[in-house]
Inverse folding.
C-alpha cells in the first residue's frame, strides 16, 4: 500500500498524485493495468510520511479507541503526559495541513493550539482558523491528542497493532496513573453496567420522607456522621506479619439499612448485605462493614441462593458498593 498526498483539480474533474520514480514503479506493479482502490488514510496512521506502507492498514479487528473521547481527559492530564513524551514532537510528523481543502494550501506548516489539543496547519489555513475558529478544527485537535496518546502507549508496550482497552489500563497501572482514568472507562474494563439515569437510591423518592433533604437541619437530624480516625503510621506497618483487622461499625450498618433496596427500591425489611466474592467475604467471616449494600430481605435471600445468577441479572456487587459509599459521602454519613 502507498500513502500519497492528493492534489484536487475540481475544475478538470481530476485528482492528481506525484509519487516520484520509485513509488511510480510500485504503482505500476500494484495496478498491473487494473483499477486501484483509493481510500482515506485511517486516523491511526495520520502522521505516517508519504511512501510505501509496510504494515497492515487495519492492525486488528478489535474496537478502535480513537473515537472514544472519554480518553481525552486521561491523555490531557499532566501526570499522564509526562510519561508519554512530547505531544508536539508527534504532531510535527504530520506531513500535511489537517484542514486542507480544494482551494489552496501554503507549503509551510505550523501548529495551532486549542483548549484541548492542537492541529497541524499550513500558514494559509492557520491564519483563517485563528480569525474564525471552527468546530472541525477543535474536533481534529481533540482527536490528535487521543491518537498521540494511543500511539505513545503502543510504543511503550512495544505492540505492532492498535492498543486495546485492557492494555491501556494495564499501562496506566504500571505507570501509576490509573486513578486518572475516567470512571466509565474503568467500569467498562471490569464489565460493570452503566449507571442507570435515575439514581438507584432515589427510587420512590416521592413516597419516602427520608429523601426530603432540602434543609441542612433535616440532614443533620437524619444522618449522624461516622468519624474516621486516620493513622498515617500504624504500628502494623512495622510488623513482619501483622494480624489482619476487619473494620466493624454498627452505626454504618444502621445507615445502610436505612437506605432503599438497591434492586427493588423497597424501604421495609432492608438488611446490610456484605460483599461476597471479588476477593472478599472469606470462609468463616464477613468482609469489612464498609463493603455493604442495602438489600430487601427476600432479595438478600435470592442472592445467597444463587450469587452468580444474581450478578448476571443485576450486575456486579462492586457497582452497588461504590454507589452506597458515594451516597454515604454525599449525605455526610462518613466524615
Amino acid at each position: 500500500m502507498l500513502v500519497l498526498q492528493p492534489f484536487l483539480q475540481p475544475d478538470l474533474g481530476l485528482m492528481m498524485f506525484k509519487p516520484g520514480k520509485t513509488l511510480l514503479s510500485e504503482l505500476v506493479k500494484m495496478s498491473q493495468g487494473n483499477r486501484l482502490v483509493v481510500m482515506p488514510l485511517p486516523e491511526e496512521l495520520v502522521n505516517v510520511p508519504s511512501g510505501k506502507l509496510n504494515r497492515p492498514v487495519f492492525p486488528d479487528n478489535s474496537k478502535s479507541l480513537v473515537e472514544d473521547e472519554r480518553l481525552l481527559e486521561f491523555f490531557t492530564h499532566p501526570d499522564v503526559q509526562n510519561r508519554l513524551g512530547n505531544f508536539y514532537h508527534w504532531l510535527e510528523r504530520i506531513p500535511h495541513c489537517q484542514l486542507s481543502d480544494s482551494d489552496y494550501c501554503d507549503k509551510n506548516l505550523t501548529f495551532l493550539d486549542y483548549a484541548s489539543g492542537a492541529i497541524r496547519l499550513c500558514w494559509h489555513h492557520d491564519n483563517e482558523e485563528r480569525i474564525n475558529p471552527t468546530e472541525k478544527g477543535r474536533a481534529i485537535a481533540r482527536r490528535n491528542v487521543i491518537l498521540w496518546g494511543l500511539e505513545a502507549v503502543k510504543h511503550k508496550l512495544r505492540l505492532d497493532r492498535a492498543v486495546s482497552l485492557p492494555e491501556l489500563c494495564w499501562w496506566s497501572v504500571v505507570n501509576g496513573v490509573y486513578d486518572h482514568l475516567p470512571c466509565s472507562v474503568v467500569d467498562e474494563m471490569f464489565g460493570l453496567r452503566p449507571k442507570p439515569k435515575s439514581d438507584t437510591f432515589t427510587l420512590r423518592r416521592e413516597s419516602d420522607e427520608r429523601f426530603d433533604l432540602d434543609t441542612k437541619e433535616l440532614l443533620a437530624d437524619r444522618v449522624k456522621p461516622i468519624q474516621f480516625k486516620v493513622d498515617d503510621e500504624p504500628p502494623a506497618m512495622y510488623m513482619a506479619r501483622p494480624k489482619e483487622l476487619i473494620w466493624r461499625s454498627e452505626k454504618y450498618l444502621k445507615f445502610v439499612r436505612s437506605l432503599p433496596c438497591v434492586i427493588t427500591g423497597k424501604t421495609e425489611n432492608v438488611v446490610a448485605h456484605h460483599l461476597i466474592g471479588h476477593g472478599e467475604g472469606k470462609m468463616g467471616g464477613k468482609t469489612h462493614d464498609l463493603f455493604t449494600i442495602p438489600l430487601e430481605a427476600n432479595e438478600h435471600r435470592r442472592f445467597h441462593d444463587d450469587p452468580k445468577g444474581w450478578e448476571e441479572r443485576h450486575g456486579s456487587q462492586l457497582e452497588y458498593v461504590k454507589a452506597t459509599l458515594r451516597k454515604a459521602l454525599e449525605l455526610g454519613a462518613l466524615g
About this structure: Residues 135-156 form the longest helix (22 residues).
